[in-house]
Write a structure and sequence with these properties.
It is built from 1 helix and no strands. By secondary structure, the chain is mainly α.
Length: 79
């Protein structure tokens, strides 16, 4: 077994000499791999806002159940 050289081992795959993986203007890297484009919807449902809205609705529902249980009647009914 031979001793390994004292140079660092590249992480994430080695790049060929003289070619970089920086994106070009054509939407591809210099190596020819396409750059994925993530398009966010301009209107409609967004994942993070829908998740936040659902969590706030659950908290509101639980708070309503706790208040009605504490009062012994619904909020819209006069005692």
């Amino acid at each position: 077994m031979t001793d390994a050289p004292d140079r660092p081992i590249p992480r994430g795959g080695a790049k060929p000499p003289g070619r970089s993986a920086a994106p070009s203007a054509a939407g591809r890297t210099d190596l020819g791999t396409p750059i994925p484009v993530q398009r966010l919807p301009r209107w409609g449902f967004h994942g993070h806002t829908e998740r936040l809205n659902g969590r706030l609705a659950m908290l509101g529902f639980v708070a309503l159940v706790v208040v009605e249980w504490t009062l012994g009647h619904g909020l819209l009914i006069r005692p």
